[in-house]
Each structure stands twice: as C-alpha cells, then as structure tokens.
C-alpha cells in the first residue's frame, strides 16, 4: 500500500485496544494457547461502546454457539457496576429471552417456580392430551398451559402449527393458555393471576355442566 493510501486508511478502527489495571483470574482463559479474556469479561469490556440492539444480537450468537454462561456474565457485570455501559448490559440481560437459543426446560422450570410461589397446585408436565404433547396440564379443569419460547414457536411454521393445535384442543373442550418468557420473568404475579382465574373459571364451568347433566 502506498504512503498516500496509508494516510487515507490509517484512522480506520481496525483494532480497538482495551486496557485495565485489574483483571481477576476468573476473567482470564486460554484459546489455542493464547491468553484471552472470558466471554463474560469481553461483554463487560465492549458494552460501553455497543448499542442495546447489538448487545442482544451478540448474546443470541454467543448462546447459539454454546459460549454463554449467564450466571458468570451476570456476576462479572455486577462486579463491574460503575463501568461505562454495564447498567445497559444488566438491563439487556434482564429483558433478554434465553429461550431463543436454548431448551424449553428453562421455561418449564420458571413456570413451575411461579406456580409454587403463587400456591397453585402443580400441573402434570409434558402430558399427552388428545395425541398432542402439551407443556402443562390440569386434567380436572381441562386447562392446558403452553410456554412459548422463540426457538420452538417463533417461526411462521411454528406459529401456524400451534394455532391449529390450539383450535383442535379447544373444539374438544380444553382451554389453552399461552405464556411467554417475558410474561413469566417480568410479571410473574399477573401471570399466575391469569392461571388462577382460568382454573377457577374451569371449575365453575365443570360444576355447571354437572348440575345441568343431573337434571
């Protein structure tokens, strides 16, 4: 490259260097024999110069590749409170839906904790109803709760398949309630109130049907 060309390009941000006076051993690792920062520490280092949207994309990609350890990332971020961008990173972590790249077990575990905290009788998990496997089922009330994570339900095909199944189950007398990660995580109280209301409604409907049948 000629001198003139070099002058035109030398200000391009090809490499950004981060310096720190304190790098705990827990924030260091090795890749192919080279010392590098951990994924968690890298997020903390870049969050001050990275937009909220970009942080979400990077979280999804790290999670997709199996590189993301949420507990370690949260712990590293909390240790770095006061550093530029860390508050934004913590907000993104609070809002982020890990089911976009992980199994449904996280959603199931969260829903069962919400039920327990709300003193709701635990449902049957992964029951088979009319030939369909459902996430949660209260057989006496004929109530089905599905927890929708983006990985399994976020595509157009998944959306259409879910609605067709819901319609089939509702025609056979079941009530289907769908909950998202955001509803469970951000509004657990309101979410469990919806579940309780549906259970109460189902019990009243059952009593009315029994009363009508006994006449």
Give the helix/strand layout.
Elements: H1 3-9, E1 28-31, E2 34-37, H2 39-46, H3 52-64, H4 70-79, H5 86-95, H6 105-117, E3 124-129, E4 132-138, E5 143-148, H7 150-153, H8 156-171, E6 175-180, H9 181-186, H10 188-213
Parallel strand pairs: 5-6
Antiparallel strand pairs: 1-2, 3-4, 4-5
Helix pairs in contact: 2-4, 4-5
**β-strand number:** 6
Q: State the helicity in percent bands.
A: 40-55%
| CATH fold type of the largest domain | Endonuclease, Chain A
Structural class: alpha+beta
CATH superfamily of the largest domain: VSR Endonuclease
User: How are the strands of the largest sheet arranged?
Assistant: 3-4-5-6
Total domain count: 2
SSE string, helix = H, strand = E?
HEEHHHHHEEEHHEHH
The Rg value, from CA coordinates, equals 24 Å
What proportion of the residues form beta strands (DSSP E)? 15-25%
List keywords for this structure.
215 residues, two-stranded antiparallel sheet, single chain, 2 domains
Explain how this protein is built:
It is elongated and about 80 Å long. β1 (28-31) and β2 form a beta hairpin. With 215 residues, it is α+β, with helices and mostly antiparallel strands. The longest helix has 26 residues, at 188-213. The chain has a four-stranded mixed sheet, with helices on both faces. It has helices spanning 3-9, 39-46, 52-64, 70-79, 86-95, 105-117, 150-153, 156-171, 181-186, 188-213; strands at 28-31, 34-37, 124-129, 132-138, 143-148, 175-180. α2 (39-46) crosses α4 (70-79) and α4 runs antiparallel to α5 (86-95). It has two domains: 14-96, no CATH class; 105-213, VSR Endonuclease (Endonuclease, Chain A, 3-Layer(aba) Sandwich), CATH 3.40.960.
